[in-house]
Amino acid sequence: MAHSYEYPRPALAVDCVVFGFDEGDLKVLLIQRDLEPFAGKWALPGGFVRIEESLDQAALRELKEETGVGKVYLEQLYTFGEPKRDPRERVVTAAYYALVKLSDHRIKGATDARDAAWFSISDLPRVAFDHEGIIETALRRLQGKVRYEPVGFELLPPKFTLTQLQHLYETILETTLDKRNFRKKILGMNLLIETDEIEQDVAHRAARLYRFHEAKYRRLEKEGFNFEL
Amino acid sequence: MAHSYEYPRPALAVDCVVFGFDEGDLKVLLIQRDLEPFAGKWALPGGFVRIEESLDQAALRELKEETGVGKVYLEQLYTFGEPKRDPRERVVTAAYYALVKLSDHRIKGATDARDAAWFSISDLPRVAFDHEGIIETALRRLQGKVRYEPVGFELLPPKFTLTQLQHLYETILETTLDKRNFRKKILGMNLLIETDEIEQDVAHRAARLYRFHEAKYRRLEKEGFNFEL
Fold this sequence. Notes:
Chain A is of the alpha+beta class and about 230 residues long. Chain A is built from five helices and nine strands; from the N terminus they run ββββαβββαααββα. In chain A, the strands form two sheets. In chain A, strands 1, 2, 3, 4, 5, 6 and 7 form a seven-stranded mixed sheet that branches. The longest helix of chain A has 18 residues, at about 130-150. The radius of gyration of chain A is 20 Å and the shape is elongated. The interface of A and B includes residues 13 and 88 of A.
């Protein structure tokens, strides 16, 4: 086939930043590299795009191959193309990100001869290539998203306490929020439905359980809002 | 040099969606292709990424070469990588977008043997490849941005009327806004400073001129807000 561009081409890769939320901790899924460069270092799951697959397909395939994690909604984040970002040669990578409920995605251990593990965002190891910057970009995107769209439906159990919801926001935003103010704002959005149930098996005074108003949630997801915290 | 990935590689390109605002009309900058495929068709300015340049550099270079337009702030939009998007072979393109004051970027005509022209977003010609979808994606991004960040500083003259500002929002959002409501909201943000000047040389009753409060503008640009319209 006649090629449209006869000069040297960058290699094209994908990388996935998968955030998992569990017990009030925001984590990132990393794999341990078994090849040079950076052999033995932790890195984002990812790899080269095949000539016949779309970028979305490549991201899902690599994530599945390297970590066993499937069925996640990966959203394209940003394409990183600095000429020196890979010491081997020019590699441009389209980064993706996703937010999953960690309990749904227990890592099966070494798939594809690699180790995969969740690391707390507040205690990451040194990572290969420019992956630290990619994780940082994904976290900023997530922090932006939380302010303009409801987040939580995919991360919390179907019924949850206001404290759990506040914890989720605090974890993503890396800050502490005023309890009264948070409750006033979140309840004011009419996004939550109070159930007639309370927490079970807790040492402290059992708190009321809430659930999301699904129709309202989906509408706000589409329309956006501004959650000033 | 040993290559890290020995299989066939997609070609890597960049494309630029440059929006220009002028006299209440939102326009897009297109070039007329002189090569197959789609010879004679209008398309986004863009081209292949050179092995030694970053994606940002490639986008700026192509835009300058093909349209003469330089010194714009191009923001990365999305990378389009569907396998069949280019009939020649696999080409993945990182799309960029920018919003400029059209009067600052009069097109010099045929640069690089191509014709370049501004087209109203409401009256675009048929464009090559998947460029219609890329323009659509850029427009949605711009519409989102307008709701969460101040826009206008770069597009309006230093002093402008509230009608001009409303027009800008209406054009980007492709809707009409209630005048009283718009004014109440925009003035309530304390983003505007009333000057002691009025419009010159207008047939209708001359309106008050405003300017942006630069510090507040920059702060809102960073912090975001929600401009519900």
